[in-house]
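New here. Invent one.

***
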Amino acid sequence: MFNKFERMIAFRYLRSRKEEGFVSIIAGFSFLGIMLGVATLIVVMSVMNGFHEELLKRILGINSHISIMHSQGQITDYQRLTDNLKSLPGIHNASPMVQGQVLATANDKHTGAMVRGMELNDLKNKELVADNILYGDFWQDNHSVLIGARMARNMHLVPGDQIRLISPKSSTTFFGDIPRVKDYTIAGIFEVGMFEYDSSTIFMPIESAQIYFRSKEAATSIEVDLRTPKDIETVKDEIKARLSSDYYMVDWKAANSSFFSSLKVERNVMFLILTLIIVIAAFNIISGMVMLVTGKNKEIAILRTIGATRGSIMRIFILCGASIGFLGTFLGYLLGLGFALNIESIREVLQELSHSEFFPAEVYFLSQLPANVENSDVYGVVILSLSLSLLATLYPSWRASRISPVEGLHNE
């Protein structure tokens, strides 16, 4: 596309000369703007992808794909229904659960918590919990529980300690209504890496939960895990055919729709905002190229006089401007990839140097800064940057090609 003569003239114009110092400054800022814009976009898109992937993995690691509940609040024939659901081909596992909110207290510390009563084998099937027990082990009796690591740290608890659970539902006695209070032994402490679960989740045997919440040998829900999550709509139709009208289902998409929708909106908004960095850099390319063309009127006229065509002049200045954008995009691509692939290490170093926390789990839910580099996002950012850089050169290059030899040499 560009012959040797056009490349030689273009790169000669790009080299800084004393009388063209201001043009070089504008070109330098354009280069930096494109490089930083591309790098920032790659890093932000990777972090947002990492957020989505890690949150989804942890949410589905604790929760199920589908929750089946009864309109009356309790499922009395949960064992029969669970066995019936397990026979469906698309279902990997179905487990009854007794769930309720409590106030947990120990060592003069108090916090709200969500108690989940489950069969021991069903809990062991949740690899996210089973593979991340930091201290202790699963319970061995009906008086033991598993708690999250942040709850344990905040309340100064270790395996073997006692934790008191207070239910908001009171029991009626001769002396009036009193809250339900019971002490349990800490059997183990788990850490799944998501603040919400590590700080407020308690697992206990389903029999203990039924007694504590007065469920009368009933379950509050049946949790269904699928073999292939993408088949969720088909499996829901099969489940619905086996349930009466008193039951209803909530899948993980509906339960977390607002959360993941807000994450998607935030990702799109961040992309649009950060794209403005590249757009501004592209406008700087236009400004610098217009000034370069203005300063090169005489040289352009001489080139036209010795036989350079308008197309050749246009290609020379396209190459001048596009070189800035292409080089900035390439270095931004390398910088962004390097930063995204090592972002957790960089975060730890910056926290050590600044003695401050850059990524509080209380705000961002996760205890580590995730990044997942998607090729489609990277290619999209690179193509966007190259396209804007190329478009920014068209008007100045067209203007340069319209300069006639007579006008350019009129005052010489």
Q: What stands out?
A: DSSP finds 17 helices and ten strands in the chain.
